[in-house]
Amino acid sequence: MRLTCFLCGLAYPADRLINTCTCGRPLRVDYDLSASTLRPDDLRGREATLWRYREVLPDCAPVSLGEGMTPLHPAPQLGATWWIKDEGVNPTASFKARGMTVAVSMAKHLGATKLAVPSAGNAGGALAAYAAKAGLEAYVFMPRDTPRACIVECENHGAHVTLIDGLITDCAAEIGRRKEAEGWFDLSTLKEPYRVEGKKTMGYELFEQMGGLPDAIVYPTGGGTGLVGMAKAFDEMQRMGWIGAARPRMISVQAEGCAPIATAFHAGERFATEFANAQTVASGLRVPRAIGDFIMLDLIRATGGTALTISDAEMVAAAKEMSRTTGVLASPEGGATLAAARRLLATGFLSPDETVVLFNTGSGVKYLEALG
Length: 372
Ligand SMILES: *Cc1c(COP(=O)(O)O)cnc(C)c1O
Ligand SMILES: [Zn+2]
Prior knowledge:
Elements: E1 2-5, E2 11-13, E3 27-30, E4 72-74, E5 82-86, H1 96-109, E6 114-118, H2 122-134, E7 137-143, H3 148-156, E8 160-164, H4 168-182, E9 185-186, H5 195-199, H6 201-210, E10 216-220, H7 225-239, E11 249-255, H8 260-267, H9 293-302, E12 306-310, H10 312-326, H11 332-347, E13 356-360, H12 368-371
Parallel strand pairs: 5-13, 6-7, 6-9, 7-8, 10-11, 10-13, 11-12
Antiparallel strand pairs: 1-2, 1-3, 4-5
Helix pairs in contact: 1-2, 2-3, 6-7, 10-11
């Protein structure tokens, strides 16, 4: 296992704590993969957590709360060949648990004792829970207007919570200023290599649960670990001989009030500019600047996908519809995928016979202010 910069290709050893490349961009975890590394048949009978994919995860003692292997529900109420991957039933009620189980396990393995993260919502709670399980200290910086359930969650897991008058980027800057003096290891999205490794298991699960991959994946995009992780999983699966070169079309959904990736996509840019005055009730999407922007924009284009924006009113209405008609308690982010898929069906980008997976990335239970 070694680390390689996603942008400039510089290589690093994986035997120590590290954040980004010297160029400032994210590091990718590379494994030596072959047809004998892991076969789908090998997975039979393994534990129902994402650690079942251990051959394609870093080698360390798992700090686990039972994350992953979330249900994939057929959703004919919404579309004949549509499915909902319900990430809201993960520990900590969002898919942030996937990233944090692997990142916290590796940070502990490599000797970190104090972990810090900026969070617009669910990342803080996930870090707090896994740090509690690991016996490590967690420092969480959140915008003051973060959904209250997320703040209470962090506090109850014993994290040191600091509320900031600003956005997640201001929280990240505060950690950046203080981390050296305080001895914090920074677990910001894509600023360490292992949250992506946890998130990529969503791609492996889709393959296992569907016996193949869907035609399209509709994904609410913030920092980008989910899109980047799933695309990485598909590349790994191809190298192990599970799939060929074909890929699901990757569709990025953002909020009208915070859409740096969708804006750059339509402008034909490879790098996104910071989105001014970011505002949306979908706190997971309130990420005005992402250091993995080019990875997302490359993979959306390479797969023939697209990017689009949904208003807060539309996503809340769609979240309520998803909740009412399917029994999945949707977050605004999950609702945004339904609204997006509908629009793409109307424009003909998606056809009615295509298999489409909508990601409900978190549970509605965290969003009392927006959904109540
Ligand atoms: C963090 C978050 C997102 C965005 O996730 P990325 O994979 O980092 O783009 C989407 N939905 C919810 C509920 C989140 O908490
Ligand atoms: Zn680099």
